[in-house]
Amino acid sequence: MNCKNCHNTLRDTQKFCDECGAKVIYNRLKPKIIAQQINEQFISIDNKFLLTFIDLFKTPETVIVGYIDGTRKKYIDVLQYFAIALTLAGIQVFLINTFFKDALNFNADFVHGLGNLPENQRHPMADFNSDFFTKYQGLIYILGVPVSALATWLVYFMFENKRFNFTEHLVINLYYSAQIIILTAFFSILFLVTGINYLIVSTILGLPTFIYLAYVLKKIFKEDFWNTFAKFLVVMFLYFIIYFVIIIVVFAVLFISGYLNI
Predict the structure, then answer these.
(1) What's the pLDDT tens digit per position in 16-71?
(2) Would you say 89 and 137 are in contact if contact means Cβ atoms under 8 Å apart?
(3) CA distance 148 to 211
(4) Which residue ranges does UniProt annotate as crossing the membrane (predicted)?
(5) How confident is the model over 161-218, as pLDDT tens digits?
């Protein structure tokens, strides 16, 4: 018998390939087999998803630095974890657009500060905000990762901490972003179900996400509070500068293409 993944020759009693580590599959796919796999990955107490989620709070350096150093079996792969996060974000957007459309109506009031306005007096940005950010939320999350990775890499490179290269900073920010997206999606759905305004939800979740980034950086780079805090402030400054430039470019392209009329 040969491994279906790397074609290495296997013994009949092997449960895992000794070459690539893949699990040896003997049974055909059936509903019971699918249910077992779902239970192993997402439901059971010792599943990888729950372990990854918890340890990214308890000891993020174990998950992230471990992955960078080559530990790839204990926790969910960084790209897979980010894909799960985007899936949950997609479910969040679907639920908002299907059952909680009124939750996004605050955009018009927030932009105008004048309450409900007639359709002909509405600022085009009011509809653009809710439409654009719900429709392209996943793309915004994806584009945000290299931006934050560039910010953290530049800051630590400037302060002569060259422990990780840019690709490894991508891994750090992918795990961080996935954790934040999962948390945000979960609590957004929970708060929306309980009737809390979406603007309040965003405000409540905003500050802890920044605090968590500082916590992750401190754990990974093992620096004292003040060094971490100073670098975190510079990271945030660079992040918003880079994002601001990108937003200006995007809006300019949308305006030139005729999608956005201001």
Answers:
(1) 887 777 777 766 556 766 766 666 655 554 578 889 999 999 999 999 999 999 88
(2) yes
(3) 15
(4) 78-100, 138-159, 171-192, 198-217, 229-256
(5) 788 999 999 999 999 999 999 988 888 777 777 766 666 666 777 778 889 999 999 9
Greatest alpha-carbon span in the chain: 74
* SS3 assignment for the chain: CECCCCCCECCCCCCECCCCCCECCCCCCCHHHHHHHHHHHHHCCCCHHHHHHHHHHHCHHHHHHHHHHCCCCCCCCHHHHHHHHHHHHHHHHHHHHHHCHHHHCHHHHHHHCCCCCCHHHCCHHHHHHHHHHHHCHHHHHHHHHHHHHHHHHHHHHHCCCCCCCHHHHHHHHHHHHHHHHHHHHHHHHHHHHCCCCHHHHHHHHHHHHHHHHHHHHHHHHCCCHHHHHHHHHHHHHHHHHHHHHHHHHHHHHHHHHCCCCC
CA dihedral sign, ordered 79, 80, 83, 88: negative
Residue with tokens 């990775």: 149
d(CA 49, CA 217): 22
Residue 194 C-beta-side C-alpha neighbours within 13 Å: 8
User: Cβ distance 184 to 198 under 8 Å?
Assistant: no
Q: Which two tokens stand for residue 126?
A: 């009011």
